[in-house]
Design goal:
2 domains; transcription; HTH-type_TetR-like_transc_reg; transcription regulation; DNA-binding transcription factor activity
């Protein structure tokens, strides 16, 4: 093992050099966004020569996509477990799902915002999501709704794709409103107000009495 590699892995946790590079890039991404993620900066932070990155990744985009996926997993791990179908009430569980989604999107927005003009990284990130064992939150939300429908706690005819789209969409809107704030005279609802309103609409709809 070279002195540089030995220095990079001196934490002694048994991580491979590839994992060390991903963890380093994830830490830099989390602390300073994507602007500072140059090959030279990542290599310096990781304690390796610049060319070492290309021994483990096809290019910088693959490393950043891997770091981005690791960042999302870290954020999700800190949010705790989602409710299981059939436990508690559907209303309480939907509140938990929506609160989870809003917190997750708020935490990862800075990283994704810096990649809007780098579609190749986002494409690599999507590929990594498909390869991971843990499905993204959208699929887990749909799985939860389907399980509740199978248990008879949601209507058999319920359009679950539409319900999931509403829940996920309000997470996107709520986070984007921090980037493009509403005018002062029409403030966007936040936090508990959003959760209460969306859950009520998902469960009860908006049609008046016939």
């Amino acid at each position: 093992m070279s002195p540089r590699k030995a220095a990079a892995l001196r934490n002694g946790d048994g991580a491979s050099l590839r994992e060390h590079l991903i963890a380093t890039a994830e830490r830099m991404l989390s602390n300073g966004g994507t602007a500072a993620l140059t090959v030279r900066a990542i290599a310096k932070e990781a304690g390796v020569a610049d060319g070492v990155l290309y021994n483990h990744f096809a290019d910088k985009e693959e490393l950043i996509a891997s770091a981005l996926r690791a960042h999302v997993r870290t954020v999700e791990a800190g949010l705790g477990a989602l409710p299981e179908p059939g436990t508690g009430t559907v209303e309480r569980n939907l509140r938990a799902q929506l609160a989870y989604g809003m917190a997750m999107h708020a935490a990862i927005l800075p990283a994704f915002a810096g990649l809007i003009d780098r579609p190749s990284v986002l494409s690599r990130f999507a590929e990594r999501q498909d390869q991971d064992g843990e499905p993204p939150w959208k699929e887990r939300l749909l799985g939860y709704l389907r399980a509740e429908r199978d248990l008879g706690r949601l209507a058999a005819h319920a359009d679950l794709d539409a319900a999931a789209a509403m829940i996920i969409g309000v997470c996107h809107e709520n986070v984007l409103s921090t980037v493009f704030p509403s005018a002062p005279e029409t403030p966007a609802p936040k936090g508990k107000d959003v959760v209460d309103g969306v859950v009520a609409v998902v469960l009860d709809g908006i049609r008046g009495e016939r």
